[in-house]
Amino acid sequence: MEKILKNFIFTLIFTLALFLFALVLSFTISRFLPGDPALAYLPEGPIDWDEYDAIMDQLGYNDPLIIQFFTYAFRMVLGEWGASFSIIRGYPVLLLVTDALLNSLDLLIVPLIIGLILGVFLGRTSIKNSSSRSNRIVQILSLIGLALPVFLVGILIQFIFGYLLPILPITGYKSLGLDDPPLITGSRIIDSLLSGKFYLIPDYLYHLILPWITLTISITIFIIILVRVYHINHLKPSKDIEKDSIVPFIFQVGFSFGTIFAFLMITEAIFNLNGLSHLLFQAINNADYWTIVAILYVISMSFVLIIFIFTILFIVYRIYQKQSISKLSNINQMDKEVKL
Q: What pLDDT, in 10s, does the model give residues 94-145?
């Protein structure tokens, strides 16, 4: 129990340190981004440099660097992410990023659930039957999938279902002629339900089929590899739970987040979906300063949040596992006493 308490305290300290590091890193990167923070607040046309200097002073960019950092941190935490300069001039970046993030979540949730279920099942099954034909098949499929990058998987799926068997749309998220639902939550599915425009949902899901297949394949193969490695290295009968370190688990979660997020970004780019990666590419191409800053902040904070949630779940699982082993031990001891 002492080890579990130490892990919990370590998780809180590590999450706070990671949060501060993410803020410092995103602030540092923001100093070198394309674009200008004041342009979104200036009227179109020739720049009035006196007005420009006044806006820069109002935004805090003439303050000492340490004051700029704390101003940046408070703005980001409070959701004051500025206005778009080029994508939708003057439009709040918070709404732009929220809308794109919810579209990304629409794309990610189904493949993530299916990929986790299939990956864990196939990975555990292949380990339990290590000498069987199913294990060899899973190994071969994992190696093939590992050798094929996600963008190649997406292109192959587009070629098969878009050209050889042209039965599914290969780009976009809606058919021509259909409008968008009223902006309520930012999620196209939820907004269609709330606004009563139910006809938009089947069309939206129809356009998500191929991206879902691409993302599901990549996530499933990745989870299979993780499960196999975990079972081979960490589920030994003689392993002492109290000595099990939380640090490798944190690194594994961080690596998994980065990999799955990369899968998501590439899939959005291949199928031209209006998610976070599409917005990021738009912002970089148009030097939309505040949009780039906000997306970097969202990505870094998502990483911190995922690390925190999964480490807490890890600690809870260890507590449950330790109690189960303790109960089993007590039952065995009682059986021995009865036999005696």
A: 888 888 888 888 888 899 899 888 888 887 777 776 666 767 777 777 777 7
pLDDT digits 0-9 by tens, 244-265:
556 666 667 777 877 888 888 8
Q: Does any domain span residue 340?
A: no
Is 7 part of a structural domain of the chain? Answer: yes
Q: How many domains does the chain have?
A: 1
231/125 Cα distance (integer angstroms)? 11
Task: List 92's β-bridge partners, or say none.
Answer: 83
Q: Taking all residues of the chain, what is their mean pLDDT, rounded to a whole number?
A: 80
How far apart, in whole angstroms, are the C-alpha atoms of residue 218 and residue 151?
10
Best CA proximity match to 78, nearest among 25, 10, 23: 23
Task: Decide if 17 is inside a domain.
Answer: yes
What range does the domain containing 125 cover?
A: 2-334
Nearest to 271 by CA among 158, 153, 103, 110: 158
Burial of 107 from C-beta contacts in 10 A (0-12 / 13-18 / 19+): buried
C-alpha 12/C-alpha 154 separation (Å) is 39
